[in-house]
Design goal:
This protein is an alpha/beta fold. The protein has nine helices and eight strands. It has an eight-stranded mixed β-sheet with strand order 3-2-1-4-7-6-8-5, sandwiched between helices.
Length: 248
């Protein structure tokens, strides 16, 4: 029998709602496959993680304001240095189903692929299920940050979380596109074992309800994408990552 994979779950977090942090933290503690939680405070440490069992708590001196990319990259670098065999990511407003890692590892062992990707179960900000999906995700043409299991043969990709801050909003798209460009094999898991609180207004409208307070507005999204597409910004992004990213 092969030795179990030594897995780290990296969570970058900020001054989030305490109930959300607890739900995130407890979902990692409840995994049916053993793992270690690396929680990286992006400038604002919280006691939810300070004394949690099987957790390594890292505190950065100030917020990096880049949608978790810097603390995510640092957490991944530590996991590599500590000798973990695989890394998963879980943002502070989301949570796993108890068998999430077990399913991801099973897919990896069956396919011997260095990258495993699953799909999301979209949630209202209040936690209720939204009966919506994304076509690109369903067809594995996009993988959200929270849906990866990255095994050691693909650890060279972890550097890609270090994107220019002006591209931080599309960091997950850049990571996925880079993995495809580098021709890493990706195996998909069909089950939706990541519970994802969405801020995307399109998800709510697709579900037939109004976006709640805290969700993005259409003008906000347009402003984000316009700033990324600006010629000077895009030139900086391409220079840093080595290719022209698809924004949507």
């Amino acid at each position: 029998m092969p030795e179990p994979l030594k897995i780290a779950v990296v969570t970058p977090y900020i001054a989030q709602d305490e109930d959300w942090l607890l739900q995130c933290q407890q979902s990692v503690q409840s995994q049916t496959y053993p793992c270690v939680h690396i929680a990286v405070a992006d400038g604002a440490p919280h006691p939810v993680f300070a004394n949690a069992p099987n957790t390594r708590h890292v505190i950065l001196p100030e917020s990096n304001r880049d949608y978790g990319n810097t603390p995510r990259a640092l957490g991944a670098m530590l996991a590599d240095s500590y000798g973990f065999d695989a890394i998963a990511f879980l943002d502070d407003d989301n949570w796993y189903e108890p068998d999430h890692l077990e399913r991801m590892v099973a897919a990896h062992l069956t396919a011997q692929a260095p990258l495993v990707a699953c799909r999301r179960k979209f949630r209202h900000l209040n936690g209720n299920v939204l009966d919506v999906t994304e076509t690109a995700e369903d067809e594995f043409r996009h993988v959200d940050t929270n849906c990866w299991l990255i095994c050691r043969p693909a650890f060279a990709l972890l550097e890609r979380w270090r994107t220019p801050k002006l591209a931080a909003f599309i960091g997950d798209r850049i990571f996925f596109q880079n993995a495809v460009r580098q021709r890493y094999r990706i195996v998909g898991v069909n089950q939706r074992t990541v519970n994802y609180r969405t801020k995307q207004p399109g998800h709510y409208r697709k579900a037939g309800i109004e976006p709640p307070p805290g969700a993005y507005t259409v003008p906000q999204l347009r402003a984000h994408y316009a700033s990324i597409r600006a010629p000077a910004a895009m030139a900086e992004i391409v220079n840093a990552i080595g290719f022209y990213p698809r924004i949507m």
